[in-house]
Structures are given as structure tokens and as C-alpha cells.
Sequence to fold (221 residues):
Amino acid sequence: MSFQGSQILSALQAIPQKPTIYAIARREITSVTPNTKPVVEPNSADWPAKLKQLTTTPEVFLSALGTTRAQAGSFAAQRAIDYDLNLALANAAKDSGIQTYVLISSGAVSAKSKFPYMKMKGELEDAVKALDIPHIVIVKPGLLLGQRQDLRLAEAALQTVAKGLGTISKAWLTDWWAQDADIIGRAAVAAALECSEGRREKGVWIVGQSEILSLGRQAPG
Fold:
């Protein structure tokens, strides 16, 4: 499970009503509660089928799926995960009758970007927006703060700066361009709950950095 995915799982597990949580992952999940139902499938290409095969259709599907070019080995292999698999899962969610789909994306991405990664993420957002799902939530954080095993050198340096600014300024200097992964996870879950509980109109909801902060800091976790 991705680092951001684990933060979303923790936020889901903190919901007082204890809903049933299906967590799809390649490996065994260590943080399991009585209401967590792991779906372990080493072959991620089979995840859309696993989603459709769930005995009970979830109300919400949340995706923080993503990899790096270095981990994948090439940009084509990264796209197969970040775009193709994400979109296949979104279509599986639609076909299963899931009412709320939440995607963790990134700030400043665009299908018109000249940068391949930003273009790919923008294309995914556009493809997801076109799906016939009642509630589509796209969470767009800035730089992701937190501890990840696959942290790249440049990102690590930026995180050090961001964390330093947050320490000096009580966080307001970093809020506009960097957010903690646990805040993002709680914000994604809070947004999903607003939709599933009927407190949000149907349609596409773009959750930007200011809303991430307000949602994430008031949500359980």
C-alpha cells in the first residue's frame, strides 16, 4: 500500500461509525481493525476485477494509487500504474454502482502541460471527470510532507525546507504549497463522507489546498 494510501486507511479506521473498509493491496496490510477487510492481490492488473467481485458494493472508493518513474523503471511503466490502472479502477467503481469516487491527484497538473508527469495526471483528472459517477472528488495537494521509504533526493530537500518553514511560522508559510500526508488522508475521507451523507451536491468537487487544510484538520484521525 502506498504511503498516502496508508494515511487514508488510518483516517477511515478512525471514523466513529466503524464502516466496513475493503483495502486492496499487493501485500498483507499490517494495520487491520475488525472492520477492515484486506483484499490482497499481488497482480495489480486484477484489482479492477477484485473491486467488482466484492460481495457488498461500497458507497465510496478512494484512490491514492501512484508510483515513481524510478520505481516503475520507465515512464511508460509509470503511466501503466498512474493512468491506466487508476482509470480502470475508476471505471470498475462506476460499473459496480459506487456513488462517490475520490482521487488523490496533485496541484498544478494539466493535460496541456509540456511536462510528461503533469500532463499524465491532468489527463487522468479529465478522464475521471467524464465518468458517470454521482460524486467525483479530486483532491489536489501541493508538496506531500511526511515520511516515505521511496523519497527522492530533490523532494527530500524540499520537504526539509517546508518543515523548517512550518516550525518557524506555526505552519502558515507552508500551508499554501505543502501539506502533511495525514492531513490529506483525513481531508479525502472527510470529503467522501460529506458526499455519502448527502451534504454535498452531486457533480465534480475539486478540493484544493485551502479546503484540504480545513477538511483535514477538523476530521477524526
Notes: Confidence is low (pLDDT under 50) at residues 144-178. The first strand starts at residue 21 and ends at 25. DSSP finds nine helices and eight strands in the chain.
